[in-house]
Each structure stands twice: as C-alpha cells, then as structure tokens.
Amino acid sequence: FKIQITNEPHPAEKKQEYIEKFTRKYGISESEAAYFVSADSLATDMYNKYDESIKILYRDGSIKDISTASDMFNIELLSKKVEKYYFAYLRD
C-alpha cells in the first residue's frame, strides 16, 4: 500500500477514481475494490491537562505539575490537537 498524509481532507472523488481504476484493472466489483482504498483522519494530542497530568519529581523530593514546573514547557503547544488526513491505496 501507498499512503499519502496531508493537512487537508482528500476529495471523495479521489477515492471513487481509485475504486473504478481497480475495478477495471483487476476485473472485480466496486465493493471488492473498495477494500484497496482507505481515506480517513488521524488526531493526536500530546498532553491533555484534564486527563492525568504529568508530574516532575525533583531531587529534594518535591513534585510539581509540568505546567507549573518550568516556563520552558508551553502547555498550549503541548495540548494542541493535531489532525492529519490520510489516503491509502494499493500500490500499482
């Protein structure tokens, strides 16, 4: 399979084009050809301050939440949700 990952959703017509291409090339039905094409989105967020928090243990035994432990960590950046879109299809 070949996978293309982008920041924008892939057009629905693209999936249909590949299904029709595989239908002609392999002499199979559209429902069978659909197994060779997939398009969806993926989302990740590295840190969610409302879930379990990340704690830092200091040498003196004290524990602080990552958001208050250092100004090096920008919680807004860590908690930003990233969404990507993939298009996977059978490689010719």
Structure write-up:
The chain is an alpha+beta fold. It has one domain (2-89). Helix content is 29%, strand content 32%. The protein has helices at residues 12-26, 30-33, 66-69, 75-78; strands spanning 2-6, 37-45, 55-57, 63-65, 81-89. The strands form 2 sheets. It has a 3-stranded antiparallel β-sheet. A two-stranded antiparallel sheet has the order 3-4. A hairpin with a 5-residue loop joins strand 3 (55-57) and strand 4 (63-65). The longest helix has 15 residues, at 12-26. The protein is rod-shaped. The termini are close together. The mean pLDDT is 87.
Which range does the strand content fall in?
A: 25-35%
Q: Measure the end-to-end span.
A: 9 Å
Which whole number gives the mean pLDDT? Answer: 87
Helix content: 25-40%
Overall, the morphology is rod-shaped
**Integer tally of domains:** 1
The sequence of SSEs as H and E is EHHEEEHHE
> Pairing-aware structural class of the strands and helices?
alpha+beta
From the alpha carbons, calculate the radius of gyration and give it in angstroms: 22 Å
The major β-sheet equals:
3 strands, antiparallel
Number of helices: 4
Strand segment tally = 5
Strand order, largest beta sheet = 1-5-2
What are the low-pLDDT stretches, counting only 5+ consecutive residues below 50?
none
